[in-house]
Design brief:
Elements: E1 8-13, H1 17-30, E2 35-40, H2 43-52, E3 57-60, E4 63-64, E5 67-68, H3 69-80
């Protein structure tokens, strides 16, 4: 029996285009399962995207144009609860 799986939704939050492309390539090599990768450059964009389509995992840069990774994690926890979305 071949069960259909939901595609993995991964959000990359990084203001560096080259880094986002690198993460995208690494993710493509690491997952046999179908996946969808979305990208944002700022914490604000990421939080808005998460509100409309919650990812299964977030790849987060520490330094963002509108804050740092710890501020983003605090805002994420306030909006979505602690531990709901794994962050790398």
């Amino acid at each position: 029996m071949n069960a259909e799986r939901t595609p993995l939704r991964i959000l990359i939050v990084d203001d560096c285009r080259e880094d986002r492309e690198l993460y995208r390539r690494l993710i493509a090599r690491g997952f046999d399962q179908e996946h969808i990768v979305a990208e944002t450059e700022t914490a604000e964009e990421a939080l808005a995207r998460i509100a409309s389509a919650e990812p299964h995992c977030i790849v987060l840069d520490y330094r963002l144009p509108d804050g740092d990774g710890l501020s983003f994690l605090s805002a994420l926890r306030l909006a979505h609860g602690e531990g709901r979305i794994p962050v790398v």
